[in-house]
Amino acid sequence: AAIPDSSTSRGLGDVYKRQSLDIPLDPEDAEEVAVVTELGHLEGLRAYHAMGIDRRPQTLQSFINDLADGSPLDGGYCAVSVPHYLAHNIPGRYIAVPRGSLAKLTREARAVAAGGRCVEVDRPLSHPKILLSLLRDNGLASEFPLITKYVTHFTEWRAKWGKQVLTNLLMGGVPRGEHWCPPVWSLFLQIRLAAKKLLALPQYGYLAEMFSTRDRPLYTRLYYALAAREADELWQAKEDYESRGAAVHALIYDSLLVSHSIPELEAKHDLEVKPFIHWEANLFMLLRKASVVLPEIPVSKLPSRKRCCLWNCLLYTSPSPRDVEESGFAGWWCKKK
Questions:
Q1: What is the pTM of this model?
Q2: Higher pLDDT, 95 or 310
Q3: DSSP E strand stretches across 42-110
Q4: Engineered SS bond to 284: which of 140, 162, 300, 327, CB 3.0-4.6 Å?
């Protein structure tokens, strides 16, 4: 049976990551701003899709179909031209319009598609760094010392309070319960005030009346202000890679998929090589993403898509008792057995 697609999940963190995907697949009023030649290993993707473990099967199938109609390359790869647009025709991230593209695949599917031919270079902590940069450019950084502290010591902050909690602050996620503490609450308040001051500047006047029907219009406007700077900087990085003989095969949020690493450019643009996530080596991470499995929730109660992903993952692996114990699935595993 067909598995429903999960690519429209709208959790708060997911909303932040996908803010700019809310345009029609074939926008009549959007201007094409770029075309990127993406590639993928066709037979590898077909075999991976047939396993039934991917969380976005419809998106994956669409990309496979596009590759099948694309231009064949050596080694079983195919290339396809992917147009990109700007959401709402305002500055921001470049959006790949076809339903299937490397940017919209799961990380596991992207590893199958391009892991043997590309590397992904990623900008860690992209939007917080851009927020601080914009504050500095406009002489406001001294008013928000906690934002500076977070960007400077983000590894320690994330280890202490969690990546998702801190990421949610940029979309107005109020820290509550176990996630509430004075430093995180103070950072939330500083980000909110910084957003108001930045968006009051004349250069962001075009955002003033936009997104008023959103749940958090202030933070949606902030997202687009940050995404505009991010897109400009990543495009400059793309041009620099191409000028040095590297091919850029995808624009993926705050990262690029390039044919090979060039350390000098990564240092110049504050980029890091990001390892591909192969599902075979990350089975239990994939299970956590496929469904929220708690010991007290019987597998039979999970939605069919999630249950299908879960069972198929186990079908293609033989995890050891130690792997199960270390994964945190021990209680669920005992009930299953």
A1: 0.76
A2: 95
A3: 71-72, 77-86, 94-96
A4: 327
